[in-house]
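INTERNAL AUDIT FORM
Audit reference: QA-55
Scope: verify that the stored structure record matches its stored sequence.
Auditor: D.O.
Record contents follow.
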Amino acid sequence: MRILVVTVIAAGAVASLAAGAANAPQVVSKIKVSPVAAPCAAAGGGGFVWVSEYGAPFLLKINPETNKVIARTGIGDGACGLGYGAGSLWIEDTSSNTVSRVSARTGKRTAAIRVGSQPYDATFAYGAAWATAHTQGDVERIDPARNKVVKRWPLGSPVGIVGAFGSIWAAGSDAVLRIDPTTNSVLARIAVAGGGWTAASADAIWVTASAGLVRIDPAGNDVAATIPFGAGGGALGDPAVVAGKIWLPKIRENRIAIVDPATNTVSSTLKVGAGPFVVTEINGEAWIPSWKGSDIWRVRP
């Protein structure tokens, strides 16, 4: 009987391991880039994937059919956060204090838009481009028809920005600002200490903060949960929602913590390249540049 019991347990363990392996995220490709590129963030647009290089003033154009870099566009220095809209990529150039506009059709830089000191993130939502100016201390709206900043909102040391639930959400040192893009009015100022990077799921806004990963309920404009990640958040990067879960970069650990919003807990972790800083969801997959390495990971959840 002991042998039978051991055999049954072993078989069950093997089956469980096999099922776990089958359900684990699969690395589709590791796309090589220059060792000095410091690839930072990705965005989809015009049928291609675009990746900003923090260490070199270029935006990479990747063909997702071949997983090959097919072109580079010169942009500003220290580029990272970006978004796609109005037929263009909008990339914040941290060291140049600009937002570069690049045509997805031609791959050419069509504008270098002057923004506040040290932009940290950029996105496109509700007919406009948006950027956070970290040192200047404001959130900025860019009119794509004029390639010009047309409105600013004060916010202490803003970092991440995302469009969701009919609003723009920007995280700063002491609060998350909710802006109505139709009226340009501030709808809420939600107290969050050490607010950083942002993401949006089906029913929540997620913000990295001093206490960890904060979940904000957009219905009540309040903090619904906080998932601790150690002192100072443990060097957390810019998350994304992939297959219904929050993929959160743990930069120093070279891992992605995968958070289940149903339980507000980490359900698993994924080992990736060196220094993952930003996760982006593109067509159901996670694109994770190795900010401290020389490749871009494409992962199927």
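Auditor finding: record pair retrieved intact. The radius of gyration is 20 Å.
Action required: none
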